[in-house]
């Protein structure tokens, strides 16, 4: 339950304050210093010390004069700033009173010559939370209409405007500070009380002042009899209490000695609990000592917690928790989901306890947090007692209707009497009246108390938050709550932390108040902001209560949710050494293992390097170098597959020159610089990836960023001298007359391409001149005739007809990087070859695609990959997959993949006329292309004429439910469905009993004469028994409706005229709370209730003792009436008349008893359970 992201500051509680406007509203002043409607007013933020007041209608437009020009204001003394007065309540520590970072202060401002006040004046600043706070006082005008006998007159009333301004001179728009204040007009007359008003406001740049436009009528202030003015001077006083501000440079470490935790979005609950665990110093010490040397730094929860604790102890800035949540196995979404603080604490402590087993810190968590209770049942009338000792790590206290912790603890150990229908089953003594209770045997040194603020409301079927006032003491004595009522056995506890929730069950925000050293010096931890606070803020202000129960200082939805107490003295003798001194013993740097410090230090060093790299990333570029060996073996268009290529990566500065890059290449590749030449690879307009010429000499001193046109990454083919050539340098290349060509040799017998190198060729030369070279590279005789093809673009390959013409006239748009594919000419006409030409082969390659086939019946099946042609039809695909699965193609059914998620979609009919390409239309680009399949027990062409129906089969002898998948004809009837079921039931029963104990006799097979029936079930109630002649089209499986096939018990059919089959359903307390498996029972007209109950008990095989608690009721239209033993059943009540045929619920018999099945959680079903996966 966490705070939500907001674009602006939240609106303050409307019960405590109302937003002001720039205009005043009309109406008589009620004498209380407010408008007629009691609205508190604000003045828009001002930057000058003297500003205009505003009124409605005729605004006082006198020019604002400098303070020195007004004689009345010229003699004003500075504001009298005084510390907050001491009172019976607890306030901030004495040393905080003179600190600008203090949480509260009281200051005064005297206004001489008040009657002459015309302009707005501001007091000198008083610093609270490092922000300047000023009193703003002004004369306000209010227009009022007075109805006369003949006309309406307008009268202008004057009032005292009194505001509190915060950070008024700041130009920043990101700051905010939540504060409460009391604005007072001090009395100067004995016996007259100060006049005061309270405000509660979130101050920020657009609303940096808040107060009252009409604090008191002007004439009342000037009236000496009222007692607020003397010698034409009034004194105003403000007592302000503020939270630590957000959006300003608040140094938590400087002001408190501690740092906060960053909020990831909705992790305030986690941050609060982590601070609580961190300040449980003995636990922190144990966390440091957990062995994590061999742990994976990304998956180890223990190491991540060590990291967080170490940074909280050593850092000067707020600490991040992303690595911790990542170690939990959480995704980003988990950090934005609301979770319960108590549940998170239990899961985390359980993980830590498991990690500590077998180490030097094993048992630390139980020693700190584990207490013991004794649960017992004691019979009143027989000598029988049952008890069990249980351990606990926290105590959940019921707060509803309770005033404080002591009342809740008394309620926790109160004795409950089990009597009447709720008697205790005492075994051989039967059902007995008994007392049920819990006794605390011991309390742990660190006591976690969870206040049950959130409880289930049956009226709304949801959780509601209880905001009632609930008090808890600073010191807690538990002597009277342990089983042994000896003095000191319970112990005295000191309050260490108060976890506070603001909001309701739908969301809110967590903060925690912690007394770190147990000395009464409290701090407030609000995510990344930590501030000192008073004891009153930490304890009294978090009791809760509604608006009329609490002061203005607290909102009614803000209250304590969890309390942490640490034992000060007492307790069991074996625990006497574990007390507040040992639990809060200071943890220093020397207490942290050196190997852990070294590992975390090395992590930080690496992080700093990576952070520096990220910050300087814009200065660098990545050059991906590909060498000629990457072209070998490539089967397809272009020179290589960009997705599978093994690049050599170079990270270089964009400002480095081409010469510097070539020197780096030469040094890395171990070639002299004259033996390498770079050829940038770029994407042409025809979607081919080819080399382009780079003028090395002209660009030798140019920057790489300029040469690459700031392309990042920049892909470069680096040409090198072949070691077999014997050359000392690469041949010269004339960009005006030479062209770089690449060659591939196609072998049609093996349907394979072979890379044949590259060549510089003069544009005036003919292709026939290079035929001998090509034959040599392909291992062919020199005089072999060749057919040459130009690879223009994907699915476009043209044969070069005339090899005796100059290349510039043969190749279309001759460019560097063009690719020529060649093959033996005589094989072009070989009819025995499947793909005789390079053009045929490349076209086939163009249509080839890798398809992943996943089994529809296996969740998250990775499947298998096959390379198929997109031009294949349904039969060809089915045969290929069937060959892989070793099955019949007609025993396979295919399903298209859904476009929005990885799941099967619509089935593909076996008569599908499209191609594999059409079957893959829903697949996203660059995503694995999937098709789902399932293996069938009947041929696909037969299946498509049938309807699949999933039913439940109940074996009348074993009482077990099993799923039954049936395939009746689409136009069939219920009788056809039952006939299909009769065929499958023997195999179904045999399979279920295959693993049965050999000593037990097998369940007899289904008798051939046994009659089957179909039953329709919805919400655990039988809604109808479809007749055998009903069409299957009339049966729907929508919503919660299911169908059950069952044997008709012997003797139930046929029915006599005075007999009827009546549906029976189980329910608990209310008829809508149905559960279990419903059934049919034959009832005679006038049959007694005991007779029916006897047969029901026999059918359900329920023991007598348990069946005594069952009650029979007749349920009509959702209302139930219990039947007594003397009642007789009237079948008329169950017969559906013609005018009742459309009733939503037909009459049925209800069997009321306790549902012993696991109950569904009453927590928010949309709330995801907390899991720590690693």
UniProtKB/TrEMBL annotation:
Residues 37-51 have a biased composition (Basic and acidic residues). One of its GO terms (biological process) is protein deubiquitination. It catalyses: Thiol-dependent hydrolysis of ester, thioester, amide, peptide and isopeptide bonds formed by the C-terminal Gly of ubiquitin (a 76-residue protein attached to proteins as an intracellular targeting signal). Residues 1-76 are annotated as: Disordered. Residues 20-32 have a biased composition (Acidic residues). It is an enzyme of class 3 (hydrolase). Its main location: nucleus. Residues 259-568 form the USP domain. One of its GO terms (cellular component) is cytosol. Its EC number is 3.4.19.12. It is found in: Nucleus. Keywords: Hydrolase, Nucleus, Protease, Thiol protease, Ubl conjugation pathway. It holds the Pfam family USP7_C2. Residues 104-240 form the MATH domain. GO terms for molecular function: cysteine-type deubiquitinase activity. Belongs to the peptidase C19 family. This is Ubiquitin carboxyl-terminal hydrolase 7.
């Amino acid at each position: 339950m966490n705070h939500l992201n907001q674009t602006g500051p939240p609106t303050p509680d409307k019960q405590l304050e109302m937003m002001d406007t720039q205009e005043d509203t009309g109406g008589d002043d009620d004498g209380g210093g407010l408008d007629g409607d009691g609205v508190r007013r604000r003045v828009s933020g001002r930057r000058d010390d003297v500003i205009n007041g505003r009124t409605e209608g005729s605004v006082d437009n006198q020019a604002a004069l400098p303070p020195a020009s007004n004689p009345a204001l010229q003699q004003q003394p500075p504001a009298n700033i005084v510390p907050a007065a001491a009172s019976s309540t607890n306030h901030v520590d004495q040393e905080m009173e003179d600190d600008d970072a203090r949480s509260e202060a009281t200051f005064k401002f005297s206004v001489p010559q008040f009657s002459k006040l015309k302009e707005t004046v501001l007091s000198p600043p008083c610093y609270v939370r490092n922000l300047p706070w000023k009193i703003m006082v002004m004369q306000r005008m209010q227009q009022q209409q007075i109805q006369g006998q003949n006309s309406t007159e307008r009268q202008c009333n004057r009032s005292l405007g009194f505001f509190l301004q915060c950070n008024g001179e700041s130009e920043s728009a990101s700051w905010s500070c939540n504060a409460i204040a009391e604005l007072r007009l001090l009395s100067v007359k004995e016996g007259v009380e100060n006049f005061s008003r309270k405000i509660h406001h979130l101050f920020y740049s657009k609303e940096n002042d808040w107060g009252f436009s009409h604090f008191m009528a002007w004439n009342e202030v000037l009236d000496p009899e009222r007692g607020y003015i003397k010698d034409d001077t009034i004194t105003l006083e403000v007592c302000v209490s503020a939270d630590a501000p957000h959006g300003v440079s608040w140094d938590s470490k400087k002001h408190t000695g501690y740092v906060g935790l960053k909020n990831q979005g909705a992790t305030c609950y986690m941050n609060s609990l982590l601070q609580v665990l961190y300040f449980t110093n003995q636990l922190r010490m144990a966390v440091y000592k957990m062995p994590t040397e061999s742990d994976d730094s990304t998956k180890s929860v223990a190491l991540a917690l060590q990291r967080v604790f170490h940074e909280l102890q050593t850092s000067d800035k707020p600490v991040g928790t992303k690595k911790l949540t990542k170690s939990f196995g959480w995704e980003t979404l988990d950090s934005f989901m609301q979770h319960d603080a108590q549940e998170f604490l239990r899961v985390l402590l359980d993980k830590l306890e498991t990690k500590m087993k077998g180490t030097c810190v094993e048992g630390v968590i139980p020693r700190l947090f584990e207490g013991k209770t004794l649960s017992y049942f004691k019979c009143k009338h027989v000598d029988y007692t049952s008890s069990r000792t249980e351990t606990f790590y926290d105590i959940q206290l019921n707060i509803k209707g309770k005033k404080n912790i002591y009342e809740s603890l008394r309620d926790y150990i109160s004795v409950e009497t089990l009597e009447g229908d709720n008697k205790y089953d005492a075994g051989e003594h039967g059902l007995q009246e008994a007392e049920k209770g819990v006794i605390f045997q011991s309390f742990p040194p660190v006591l976690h108390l969870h206040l049950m603020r959130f409880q289930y409301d049956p009226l709304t079927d949801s959780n509601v938050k209880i905001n009632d006032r609930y008090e808890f003491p600073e010191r807690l004595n538990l002597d009277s709550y342990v089983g042994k009522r000896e003095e000191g056995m319970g112990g005295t506890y000191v309050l260490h932390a108060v976890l506070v929730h603001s909001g309701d069950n739908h969301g809110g925000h967590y903060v925690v108040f912690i007394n770190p050293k147990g000395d009464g010096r409290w701090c407030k931890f609000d995510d990344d902001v930590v501030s000192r606070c008073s004891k009153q803020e930490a304890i009294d202000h978090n009791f809760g209560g509604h608006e009329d129960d609490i002061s203005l200082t607290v909102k009614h939805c803000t209250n304590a949710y969890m309390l942490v107490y640490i034992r000060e003295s007492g307790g069991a003798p074996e625990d006497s050494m574990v007390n507040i001194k040992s639990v809060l013993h200071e943890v220093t740097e020397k207490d942290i293992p050196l190997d852990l410090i070294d590992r975390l230090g090395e992590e930080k060093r690496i992080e700093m390097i990576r952070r520096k790299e990220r910050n300087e990333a814009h200065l660098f570029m990545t050059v991906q170098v590909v060498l000629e060996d990457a072209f070998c073996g490539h089967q397809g268009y272009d020179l290589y597959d960009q997705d599978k290529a093994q690049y050599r990566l170079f990270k270089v500065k964009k400002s480095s020159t081409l010469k510097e890059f070539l020197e780096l290449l030469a040094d890395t590749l171990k070639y002299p610089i004259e033996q390498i030449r770079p050829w940038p690879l770029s994407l042409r307009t025809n979607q081919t990836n080819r080399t382009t010429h780079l003028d090395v000499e002209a660009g030798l001193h140019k920057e790489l960023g300029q040469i690459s046109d700031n392309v990042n990454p920049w892909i470069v083919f680096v040409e090198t001298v072949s070691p077999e050539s014997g050359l000392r340098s690469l041949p010269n290349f004339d960009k005006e007359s030479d062209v770089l060509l690449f060659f591939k040799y196609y072998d049609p017998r093996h349907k394979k391409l072979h890379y044949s190198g590259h060549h510089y060729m003069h544009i005036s030369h003919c292709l026939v001149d290079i035929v001998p070279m090509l034959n040599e590279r392909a291992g062919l005789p020199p005089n072999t005739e060749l057919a040459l093809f130009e690879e223009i673009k994907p699915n476009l390959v043209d044969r070069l007809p005339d090899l005796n013409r100059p290349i510039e006239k043969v190749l279309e748009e001759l460019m560097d990087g063009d690719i020529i594919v060649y093959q033996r000419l005589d094989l072009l006409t070989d009819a025995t070859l499947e793909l005789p030409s390079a053009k045929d082969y490349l076209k086939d390659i163009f249509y080839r695609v890798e398809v992943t086939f996943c089994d529809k019946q296996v969740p998250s099946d990775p499947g298998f990959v096959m390379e198929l042609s997109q031009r294949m039809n349904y039969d060809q695909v089915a045969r290929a997959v069937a060959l892989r699965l070793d099955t019949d193609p007609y025993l396979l059914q295919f399903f298209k993949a859904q476009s929005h998620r990885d799941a099967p979609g619509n089935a593909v009919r076996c008569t599908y006329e499209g191609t594999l390409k059409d079957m893959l239309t829903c697949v996203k680009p660059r995503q694995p292309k999937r098709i789902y399949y399932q293996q069938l027990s009947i041929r696909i062409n037969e299946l498509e004429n049938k309807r699949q129906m999933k039913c439940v089969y109940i074996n009348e002898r074993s009482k077990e439910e099993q799923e039954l998948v049936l395939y009746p004809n689409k136009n069939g009837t219920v009788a056809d469905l039952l006939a299909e079921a009769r065929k499958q039931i023997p195999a179904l029963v045999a399979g279920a009993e295959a693993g049965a104990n050999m000593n037990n006799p097998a369940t007899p097979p289904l008798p051939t004469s046994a009659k089957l029936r179909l039953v329709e079930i919805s919400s655990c109630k039988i809604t109808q028994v479809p007749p055998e002649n009903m069409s299957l089209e009339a049966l729907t499986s929508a919503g919660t409706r299911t169908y059950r096939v069952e044997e008709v018990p012997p003797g139930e059919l046929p029915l006599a005229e005075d007999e009827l089959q009546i549906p029976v359903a189980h329910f608990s307390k209310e008829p809508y709370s149905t559960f279990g498996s419903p059934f049919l029972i034959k009832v005679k007209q006038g049959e007694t209730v005991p007779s029916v109950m006897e047969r029901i008990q026999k059918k359900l095989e329920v023991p007598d003792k348990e069946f005594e608690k069952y009650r029979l009721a007749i349920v009509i239209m959702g209302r139930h009436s219990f039947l007594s033993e003397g009642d007789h059943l009237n079948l008329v009540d169950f017969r559906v008349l013609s005018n009742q045929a459309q009733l939503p619920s037909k009459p049925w018999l209800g069997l009321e008893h306790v549902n012993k099945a696991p109950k569904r959680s009453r927590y928010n079903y949309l709330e995801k359970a907390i899991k720590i996966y690693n």
